[in-house]
Amino acid sequence: MDAWGTLLATVTGAAIAILGQYLTKRSEARAKSMELLMDACAQVAASSGDLLNRIWEEYALDLEGRVVQWDLAAHRLASARVEILARDAGLLAALREVDDAGQALGAYWRRGEVEEAAYRSRRDRYRAAMHEFLAQSSRVLGRQLNRA
């Protein structure tokens, strides 16, 4: 009878240890995923703000070549990371709007001749999209941080 009790205790202990390892690895993977998503969201937000500032510098300060030097590849990479890592429909919709509004503003800006009302409309759309993206990012990441 003692042998069976010892065996049962050993099996139970091993099962608890395996379950503990599984839960720890799962928690670590979730934390890493959240960290990557936070970094990608921050990169999209920073890159979007940088584009807006560069357009303003060319528009208001008559500096040339600022928009051309903007790192579009880094912005696209960060956007792709958000698309891969995020599962939230609101965050993904906000990202699409940032990208769409940025494309509209950038395409209009590259035409060369800028009308005040059209420029302001596109700029304001882009700015609003950036704010919504930040709000959605904060909501999603805040919810994930509360789970951790």
From TrEMBL:
Domain of life: Bacteria
Organism name: Streptomyces physcomitrii
Name of the protein in its database record: Secreted protein
Lineage of the organism: Bacteria, Bacillati, Actinomycetota, Actinomycetes, Kitasatosporales
TM region positions: 6-24
Keywords annotated in UniProt: Membrane, Transmembrane, Transmembrane helix
